[in-house]
Design brief:
This protein is of the alpha+beta class. It has nine helices and six strands, in the order αβααβαβαβααββαα. 55% of the residues lie in helices and 12% in strands. Helix 1 (3-20) crosses helix 3 (42-54) and helix 5 crosses helix 7.
C-alpha cells in the first residue's frame, strides 16, 4: 500500500469517528470542522467513507443551510453544511423499538411534520399544538414539541412559527411521507 493510500485510510477512519461520535447536542458536524480536522481534501475522504458505509446500509448525508439539497455546492456552502451519518433505507416499524423512541412520539413527530409541510413549510406553534392535542395529552404535546426542536427536527423563530429543521431534511423523505399519507387517505375515501 502506498503512503498516500495509507494516509487516506487513516483520514477515513478519523472521519468515521468524528461523524459517529456525538459531541454536541445534535449529531453530525459542520463542513468547516471536517475541513479543519481532515484537510482541504475532506470531501474526497467523505466520499471514501460513504463508499465503506454503504456496505453497512449507512450513508453520509450532507444537509445544507438552504431547504433544498444542492447538486453542485460551492466550497462555502459545503463548509456551512452539516454532515451526518444516517441509514440508507427506511426503518421498519418492527425495528423502531430499538430506536429509543416510543411509537406515539414518532406519530406526533410525523403529524407535526406533515402539518407543517401542508402549510408550505411553516406554521404557528399554536396550530401544531392544537392538532396534536386532538390525539395526545397537553403535557405530552408541549414536551414533544420542545424535544423535536431540541433534536433538530423542527425549529422555532421569535414569532412562535415552526419550520422543518435540518434533521427532518436529512432523515425524512418528505415527498414519500406525503405520498404515504395521501395514499392512505385515498384508500379511506374510496373504500365502501
Amino acid at each position: 500500500m502506498s503512503e498516500e493510500t495509507t494516509s487516506y485510510m487513516r483520514k477515513v477512519k478519523r472521519a468515521s469517528k468524528i461523524l459517529l461520535y456525538q459531541r454536541h447536542r445534535q449529531p453530525g458536524i459542520k463542513g468547516w470542522e471536517l475541513k479543519r480536522a481532515l484537510g482541504r481534501d475532506y470531501m474526497k475522504i467523505i466520499q471514501l467513507l460513504d463508499e465503506q458505509l454503504a456496505n453497512l446500509d449507512l450513508q453520509v448525508k450532507i444537509v445544507y443551510e438552504e431547504e433544498e439539497q444542492l447538486d453542485k455546492p460551492t466550497e462555502d456552502q459545503l463548509e456551512k453544511a452539516r454532515f451526518y451519518v444516517t441509514i440508507k433505507e427506511p426503518i421498519a416499524m418492527s425495528d423502531l423499538s430499538t430506536s429509543g423512541w416510543r411509537v406515539d412520539d414518532i406519530a406526533a413527530l410525523v403529524i407535526a411534520i406533515a402539518y407543517i409541510i401542508s402549510k408550505q413549510g411553516k406554521s404557528s406553534r399554536k396550530e401544531v399544538e392544537q392538532i396534536l392535542k386532538e390525539k395526545f395529552p397537553k403535557w405530552k404535546v408541549e414536551h414533544n414539541l420542545s424535544r423535536f426542536i431540541a433534536r433538530g427536527y423542527l425549529s422555532q423563530d421569535e414569532n412562535d412559527l415552526l419550520y422543518l429543521d435540518w434533521r427532518t431534511r436529512a432523515e425524512i423523505d418528505q415527498k414519500e411521507l406525503v405520498r404515504l399519507i395521501l395514499g392512505e387517505e385515498m384508500r379511506i375515501i374510496t373504500s365502501p
